[in-house]
Amino acid sequence: MASMTIRNIDDALKSRLRIRAAHHGRSMEDEARDILRAALSAGADRTPHLVNRIRSRVARVGGIDLPDVPREPMRDPVDLS
After folding, report:
1. What is the pLDDT of residue 26?
2. pLDDT for 43 beyond 70
3. Which of 11, 30, 45, 46 lies 20 to 30 Å from 37 when distance is taken between CA atoms?
């Protein structure tokens, strides 16, 4: 395993890391490792946005034409007095 030293961390950032680590019941070092692991593994596992997933499913059947829905005027605000 490799080791790493991080210098010149802002005091507020270090404090937030300490609080987050305490909240999760582990050391700051363990917390930093977990944050790095999550951040770097998320890039490879990124799922497409919901809109793109829906488009890809609909494209297989040739698309869908939705009817135009007329807009209605906004309702009057509720009187809270």
Report:
1. 95
2. no
3. 11
Q: How far is CA 32 from CA 5, 7, 22, 39, 81, in A?
A: 11, 14, 12, 11, 51
Buried b / exposed e over 28-44, threshold 16 CB at 10 Å, is eeebbeeeeeeeeeeee
For Cα atoms 51, 41, 46, give the angle at the middle one, nearest 5 degrees: 10
| Burial tier of 2 (Cβ tally within 10 Å: 0-12, 13-18, 19+) | exposed
pTM: 0.51
The CA radius of gyration of the chain, in Å to the nearest whole number, is 24
One-letter amino acid of 66: L
The pLDDT of residue 75: 87
**What's the pLDDT score for residue 77?**
87
